[in-house]
Design goal:
Length: about 250
C-alpha cells in the first residue's frame, strides 16, 4: 500500500484488456479502488475485477460508452454512489485504424473523433464537476503524432486533439488543484497494436526505439503510477512521451 494513494478511487476507461487492464491491476496494489469501465466486453471486465479482488484489491466494473455523454454521466454518478468520490481519471479507452486518405470513410473518421476526442473531452467535463480537489487526470495520446507514418492520419489527428485539450484545460483544472497530463506511448504489445500487422511490420517497429523491443503494458503503467502520486503535483498540461526513445 502507498500512503499517497490508499483509499483513493480511480476511473479507468477501456480497462477490460490491454494497457487499461494492466493499469487497473497495478493501481489496485497501491490501495486504489479501481473502476473497470468497459463498453461491450462485460465478461473480460469481470475477469479483471475478479483478478484484482482475488489479490486483495477493490474493483468493480461499470459499463459505459464513452462516446455518449449520458453514459459518462452514469459512469461518474455510479462511481460516486458506490465509492463516495472520484480522485483519479485515466482516459485510456480509444480506437485505432490504419488507412491511407483515399480509403478513409466518413464513418471511420467520425468514430475516431467520437471516441478518442469527444470521449476524452467530456470525461474531463464530468471530472471538472465531480472530481475531488487535488485529483489527477491522465489522457492517452500517441508518439505517432511526432512522425510521418502512412495510414495513421486520422488516428494521429485525433490524438493531436487530445494533446491540445490536455494543454488548454490545465489552467481550468488548476483552480481545483487537479493536474491533467497526457502520455504518448510508442509501440506497445497489445491486441490493438498487433491487429492486422505483419510480422515484418512488428519487427521493424520494434527496432525504432533505443531498446529494440516493443513496449510492455507495464512500461506504461509504471509512468501512470508516477503521475497519480503526490510527487507529480508540479507536472500539468504536459504530453509525456513514453516510448523507449522512439522519438
Amino acid at each position: 500500500m502507498n500512503n499517497d494513494t490508499e483509499q483513493k478511487v480511480a476511473i479507468i476507461t477501456g480497462a477490460s484488456r490491454g494497457i487499461g487492464q494492466k493499469i487497473a491491476e497495478q493501481l489496485s496494489k497501491l490501495g486504489i479502488f479501481t473502476i473497470i469501465n468497459y463498453r461491450t466486453n462485460k465478461e473480460e471486465a469481470q475477469k479483471v475485477v475478479k483478478n484484482i479482488t482475488n489479490n486483495g484489491g477493490k474493483a468493480i466494473a461499470i459499463q459505459a460508452d464513452i462516446s455518449k455523454i449520458i453514459d459518462l454521466e452514469k459512469l461518474f454518478d455510479e462511481t460516486i454512489r458506490i465509492c463516495g468520490k472520484v480522485d483519479i481519471l485515466i482516459n485510456n479507452a480509444g480506437i485505432m485504424s490504419n488507412n491511407t486518405i483515399l480509403d478513409v470513410t466518413e464513418e471511420e473518421f467520425d468514430k475516431h473523433f467520437s471516441i478518442n476526442v469527444k470521449g476524452t473531452y467530456f470525461s474531463c467535463q464530468q471530472a471538472m464537476e465531480k472530481m475531488e480537489e487535488n485529483g489527477r487526470i491522465i489522457n492517452f495520446s500517441t508518439s505517432v503524432t511526432g512522425v510521418m507514418f502512412p495510414a495513421y492520419s486520422v488516428y494521429a489527428a485525433s490524438k493531436g486533439a487530445v494533446d491540445q485539450l490536455t494543454r488548454q484545460l490545465a489552467k481550468e483544472f488548476g483552480i481545483k488543484g487537479i493536474t491533467i497530463n497526457a502520455i504518448a506511448p510508442g509501440s506497445v504489445k497489445t491486441e490493438l497494436f498487433l491487429h492486422e500487422k505483419s510480422l515484418e511490420q512488428i519487427e521493424s517497429m520494434s527496432k525504432m526505439n533505443a531498446f529494440n523491443r516493443l513496449g510492455e503494458t507495464g512500461d506504461i503503467a509504471d509512468v501512470i503510477e508516477l503521475l497519480i502520486s503526490n510527487k507529480s503535483h508540479w507536472i500539468t498540461g504536459q504530453t509525456i512521451k513514453v516510448n523507449g526513445g522512439f522519438i
